[in-house]
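Progress note, project year one: complex with magnesium ion.
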Amino acid sequence: MNKNGGRVHTRFPPEPNGYLHIGHAKSICLNFGTAEEFGGLCNLRFDDTNPSKEETEFVESIKEDVRWLGFTWEDRLFYASDYFDQLYEFAVQLIKQGKAYVCDLTAEQIREYRGTLTKPGKESPYRNRSIEENLDLFTRMKNGEFSDGAKVLRAKIDMASPNLNMRDPVIYRIMHERHHRTGDKWCIYPMYDFAHPLSDALENITHSICTLEFEDHRPLYDWFVDNLITGDKPRQYEFARLNLTKTITSKRKLRRLVEEGYVQGWDDPRMPTIAGYRRRGYTPEAIRDFCNRIGVAKANSTVDIALLEHCLREDLNLKAPRVMAVLDPVKVVITNYPEGQIEKLEAENNPQDPEAGYRQVTFSRTLFIEREDFMENPPKKYFRLSPGKEVRLKHAYIIKCEHVVKDEEGRVIEIHCTYDPDTKSGGPAAGRKVKGTLHWVSEAEAIDAEVRLYDYLFLDDEPQDNQDGEDELEDRFEDELNEKNEEVDDFLSKINPHSLKVLKNCKVEPLLKNALPGSKFQFLRQGYFCADLKDHSSQTPVFNRIVGLKDSWAKANRK
Ligand code: ATP
Ligand code: MG
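Model obtained:
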């Protein structure tokens, strides 16, 4: 920590070519969190060196997501494109030092010449152009005299290096494309590998934290910085990418899900994007807790999504008020309860939170329970409702099933019960015990709601082939040189066709009508739910299931 006078300055450097996902959340927590911990600073920097892939929509969404996670970059918002002039000057300096040259080989030839891990590369025939010729050609590249791909600028390092990244990498390419910030000013753009380390250096970054697949790029980054920068230099630290079971963590793949219509958008509640999680009802506290618990590792591995869900339940358990909601209703008639009578019963809002208080729920002669909470011919040890059996209605009375009414097809349409008036809270038989307790909503006060139940978009534990980010990195460089990607990963064939189930006729407590979009509840016995940020209104209440109540992670890890 004595380097840089003990100063800690990190940055989070997303490429604005998609929405952030849970892997980025880990990187955000690490970069902003490390700065916070050591009294340092963290910049937000958009690595916007590839004009063909980047859009302002993504810039805005990324800012919103970082803020939502609870971090601030204050006035330190930067763009790699802020440095285009400076980077151009750096390239000119390299040429003048005899350490860069203009090369006319095609992208395909460059690749051929590069060699492999076992075979050294071959020098480009253009490698020994004079400094004057290189300066002239590079200026003319900048001035737009050549077409896309006709020429590139390459660093002159070592075609026999065991590290492929050091074999005369491309540092500038021609792209006649409008850039979201610099417009038509440039028709040559720096490669990520050139722009990234130098942007770090220009911002006086001390700890350049990145994922493991960049480890082999570190010698190249150091080479650029050593040749062009004097004074303190950023030092790169690599950590393992986050991989989550049942989850795709690659912007390029997530982008295909959106663009090819497999989901309804980047913020579809099934997406592992920050925007998707937010809409689904995840909390920033839970995501940060998760990122802290998984910590930083030096080896790639896959984390069980059950841990993320566990963090979420822990957070929601404390915060989410309890309400009753019947998702698949069947009618119950209490035959010995007077017609037209209603009464208010007291219901606890959250047993985990003494401050949460009580509300009133209305009891009436007809009410709704879950269809699956009744069985006409139950197996042994079935403690829900069945003919001749008793259950307690939560916050209310014990009822007994006397009779069942069916339609012509034999489907149960009404369950006739009697209630025991002595069994409500405070009544003479309040303490009488029965095995089952059911949630319910009275017909007198129920409102209709739509409920959306989500399952994993992928049921496979490892739906993406690459767990190390290498493919992603390769795609990125291919994109930069405008080469065609050949998608070999068949992740699209693994999509779960039943990831969304919409229930239209749910009966819920009336207070849910006025729930603010984004507010969260525990529906008793059903899980945690969130009023949808886009579609919920008092006319048409819509709730997303965030997560069920059963905690497989806690269960597996209980001592
Ligand atoms: P993707 O591979 O999904 O396209 P990326 O690496 O291209 O993502 P960037 O926008 O370059 O996306 O990422 C910004 C930062 O987030 C980088 O420092 C990158 O290392 C980090 N990051 C990306 N994915 C993960 C992940 N799965 N786990 C941890 N950090 C990640
Ligand atoms: Mg990547």
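DSSP finds 13 helices and 27 strands in the chain.
Residues 22-37 form the longest helix (16 residues).
No further modelling is planned for this target in the current period.
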